[in-house]
Design a protein that fits this description.
single chain; mainly beta; Immunoglobulin-like; five-stranded antiparallel β-sheet; elongated
């Protein structure tokens, strides 16, 4: 007879055989737990062909044999049949979505003999595939990498080396809808704000756009279809800040909101000028919310061209405007509001002073009257490019001198006291033309200076101590010529330098570490000619730059404003024609020492001239090139 053993539960094995005898009195069933040593388990009546063995232990192997018997004796044994009882199955399986890509499972462990648990998943409720295992006595599992807004079904079973359990109950749940991320808002007109976000969902029906005028109370303004990642809000008020958030939605509900992003619609744009050539070169927002602007005018004043300073209100109206100069050529390069509410202006004059052209400084009151004015120079040509009030109430000035230092001209840095007298003055340079373009007092009380050098490879950056001695100095060279316009200390103690490369004809930006080594360097532009004249780090660690862009056809340049992420990344729209690229720079240590100079200092006596510029409202076209 052929004996078959089959486990049907954690506690039962069913036996079946073929009765081939016609004179048995019954059958004897033997059992073994090791396959070798058998004990009589039970007897059953004649003509019986099955037996259900119950009360067994879960997950345990058993061996059986059967023989018939009568009063004359017993038959030989059947074959040995083997079966293993099932493990007790886990129960109470639950599935809870905790994100748009994660599901947490939990269950009750009913077995005492499992080695672990298998977790099975189905996306259609029919076909299940194993997705993971956990160790013995574990009652939870986190399933990751799921699609958002999707229903998943699960079951779990215990396993050991010898046996497995039945599957648990089925538990189903839907993952959350993936929210949009990276929302950015940017004014693209005087009444338009463009929104950009990352579409992270696979199953959204669309996106809800919400807007706020106070950053707290939001209202829905529109919806956009699935797979949309941009929206332009139009018809807005000028000079107003708006806040936005975006939510994906589908039939099962909405996602979490994106981050909140805000943008400020430009309040105004105006031109100021007369019949001649008038140019602004430096501007700063003042403590009253207005603006101070400095530049050069040939429409007003006493000579060929004069310093021109305008104080504007918050809405761009002129509060006062004055030209300062003599019979010659006088040009302002830099202006800053001072701690007393007045202003300091630096540039050059050839109307007064000692030589061909001198550094010229004006200290103005808050109303634009002259508190003091001085020229600094020698017999050659000297000019200032950058000025900043220092922490001690004095001033630091950087520019160029042809009167002192090397034959062709050097960086010239002057530390002035609050009354314009000289605390110290030094030149830095080699044998050729070296022009400093930007200076800033640093957090350690020293100074960072950047400019362009012919004596060394291209861009030249000096870190000075508070007394003007050199802490470190490095030159940075590119395949073509590289010009530096502006430098600022960054939040991490390093520095950011902006300018342009003549070979690439692109705006160039270098991020330096605190010791002058490069963190990154990149070029930005298209087929035209781009410049980056100024750079500022904003509160989140990113950067905002201002410069110009001009098409290859030779048209006049446009104002260009662009933002960079903290690592220099910018995501240009494909249609903009712009791109960013990593550039290779050679870094050279230089070895100049600061040379003391002794400039002639003259008190000048120009009389301010009231000007009457025509103020014209403009409506500039804003072209969006990147989010």
């Amino acid at each position: 007879m052929r004996l078959v053993a089959e486990a049907v539960s954690p506690f039962e094995i069913d036996l079946s055989w073929k009765d081939t005898s016609d004179n048995e009195d019954g059958f004897q069933v033997d059992i073994s737990t090791d396959g070798t040593t058998f004990l009589a388990r039970t007897t059953v009546q004649a003509n019986t062909e099955k037996y259900m063995d119950v009360g067994l232990t879960e997950g345990t192997p058993y061996w059986y044999r059967v023989r018939s018997y009568n009063t004359s004796g017993s038959s030989s044994y059947s074959n040995i049949a083997h079966a293993v009882t099932f493990l007790r199955a886990p129960t109470g399986l639950r599935a809870v979505a905790v994100s748009f890509s994660q599901m947490v499972l939990s269950w009750e462990d009913n077995s005492d003999k499992e080695d672990g648990f298998e977790v099975w998943r189905s996306a259609d409720g029919i076909t299940y595939m194993p997705v993971g295992t956990v160790l013995t006595n574990t009652t939870a599992f986190t399933d990751t990498g799921l699609n958002d807004g999707s229903v998943y079904s699960y079951w779990v079973r215990a396993y050991s080396f010898a046996a497995k359990s039945f599957y648990s109950n089925v538990a189903s749940s839907s993952t959350l809808l993936a929210p949009p991320t990276g929302l950015k808002a940017m004014a693209v007109g005087f009444s338009d704000i463009a929104l950009f976000w990352q579409d992270n969902s696979c199953v959204e029906i669309g996106y809800r756009i919400e807007r706020s005028t106070d950053g707290t109370n939001f209202i829905q303004i529109t919806t956009v279809p699935a797979n949309t990642a941009t929206f332009t809000d139009t018809g807005l008020e000028k000079g107003t800040r708006y806040w936005y958030r975006v939510q994906a939605y589908y039939s099962g509900g909405g996602s979490e909101y994106s981050n909140v992003a805000s943008a400020f619609t430009p309040p105004w744009s105006k031109t100021y000028g007369g019949s001649g050539w008038d140019e602004a070169v430096s501007a700063q927002q003042t403590t009253d919310g207005g603006y101070i602007v400095a530049g050069t005018t040939s429409s007003f004043g006493a000579g060929g061209q004069d310093f021109w300073v305008l104080k504007l209100s918050v809405d761009g109206a002129v509060e006062w405007q004055r030209a300062f100069g003599g019979p010659g050529s006088d040009s302002a390069a830099s202006i800053q509001q001072t701690s007393d509410g007045g202003y300091i202006v630096a540039g050059y004059t050839d109307s007064s002073g000692a030589g061909l052209r001198d550094v010229w400084m004006l200290k103005l009151s808050g109303e634009g009257t002259v508190e003091w004015q001085k020229a600094y120079g020698g017999p050659g040509s000297d000019s200032a490019a950058s000025i900043q009030q220092t922490g001690d109430g004095g001033y630091i000035v950087a520019g160029y001198t042809g009167s002192f230092g090397a034959v062709k001209g050097d960086y010239w840095v002057l530390k002035l006291n609050g009354d314009g007298s000289v605390a110290w003055e030094k030149t830095y340079g080699g044998g050729w033309n070296d022009l400093a373009s930007s200076i800033q007092q640093t957090s350690d009380g020293g100074y960072i200076v950047a400019g362009t050098a012919d004596s060394f490879p291209q861009v030249w950056v000096l870190k000075l101590n508070a007394d003007g001695t050199v802490a470190w100095q490095k030159a940075y060279a590119e395949l073509s010529y590289f010009y530096a316009y502006f430098v600022r200390e960054t939040n991490d103690g390093g520095y950011i330098v902006s300018g342009y490369g003549s070979g690439w004809s692109d705006a160039m930006v270098i991020k330096l570490n605190a010791d002058g080594t490069t963190a990154w360097q990149k070029g930005y532009g298209g087929t035209g000619y781009e410049r980056a004249f100024s750079v500022q780090q904003i509160s989140n660690g990113d950067y905002i730059l201002a410069g110009s862009t001009r098409t290859p056809s030779g048209a006049l340049p446009d104002l260009w404003v662009f933002g960079l992420e903290s690592d220099g990344t910018i995501h240009f729209n494909p249609s903009s024609g712009m791109s960013s690229k990593d550039i290779f720079l050679w870094i050279h240590d230089t070895y100049v020492t600061g040379s003391n100079t002794s400039a002639n200092v003259f008190t000048t006596s120009v009389t301010p001239v009231e000007t009457n510029a025509t103020v014209t409202d403009t409506n500039a076209t804003i072209k969006q090139q990147a989010p």
